[in-house]
Design goal:
One of its GO terms (biological process) is signal peptide processing. It is built from three helices and twelve strands, in the order H-E-E-E-E-E-E-E-E-E-H-E-E-E-H. It has 209 residues and is α+β, with helices and mostly antiparallel strands. The protein folds into two domains: 1-41; 46-200, Umud Fragment, subunit A (Ribbon), CATH 2.10.109.10. Strands 1, 2, 3, 4, 9, 10, 11 and 12 form an eight-stranded antiparallel β-sheet that branches. The longest helix is centred in the N-terminal third of the chain and has 39 residues, at 2-40. It is elongated. The termini are far apart.
């Protein structure tokens, strides 16, 4: 009789232990998911045509918020940043998304005789840029700037429909929310966003950096 009671009590304790462990796992998973969504990854909606054809109106992207805090921004990155002031009109939100063209200290100029832009004297191939029909220029306006310390030069991929650093100046690195790395919605648009590293990694650092 006592053996049966002991066996039953052991099974009961084992069952409660399983339920307790399962509850701990579920709670830990929920906390981890919350922390990831809150501090590491966020979803953003694309409201404008400025990044076409890389990003279309209505797309949703995931943004890695470890950039630039723990992971440095690189040329070619697609980044979300808070409006430094005056970029957006009333009722258009607080965040923008553009591609990083120049890092602090870089000299960025456009356009060369073949219509391309140069960074630190190196012409860059930009296959993602939407050109004006009949033109080979990646920008409708010429510019030659040195990016200030602590700032980035950013431009939209749809250059002729993008209000970016050409109109508003450079963006403080501190205003960067994170790097967009994948399109998640709609499902038919799912893709990993490329920074075109083969082209951008060939750009030399400016001597003053």
């Amino acid at each position: 009789m006592s053996d049966e009671t002991t066996s039953g009590g052991t099974k009961q304790r084992g069952g409660w232990r399983f339920i307790r462990d399962l509850a701990i796992i579920i709670v830990a998973a929920l906390i981890a998911s919350f922390l990831v969504k809150t501090f590491l990854v966020r979803s953003f909606y694309i409201p404008s045509e400025s990044m076409e054809d890389t990003l279309l109106v209505g797309d949703r992207v995931l943004v890695n918020e470890l950039v630039p805090g723990l992971v440095p921004v690189r040329r070619g990155d697609v980044v979300v940043f808070t409006d430094p002031g005056g970029w957006l009109g009333t009722g258009q939100g607080d965040d923008l998304i553009k591609r990083v063209i120049g890092l602090p200290g870089d000299r960025v100029s456009c356009c060369g005789t073949d219509g391309r832009l140069s960074v630190n004297g190196k012409e860059v191939d930009e296959p993602y840029v939407v050109l004006e029909p009949g033109s080979d220029r990646v920008s409708g306006t010429d510019f030659d700037v040195t990016v200030p310390k602590g700032h980035l030069w950013v431009m939209g991929d749809n250059r002729y429909e993008s209000a970016d650093s050409r109109a508003h100046g450079s963006v403080p690195v501190d205003d960067v929310v994170g790097r967009a790395f994948v399109t998640t919605w709609p499902v038919s648009r799912w893709t990993v966003l490329s920074r075109y590293g083969d082209d951008w990694d060939a750009v030399p650092d400016h001597p003053t950096r």
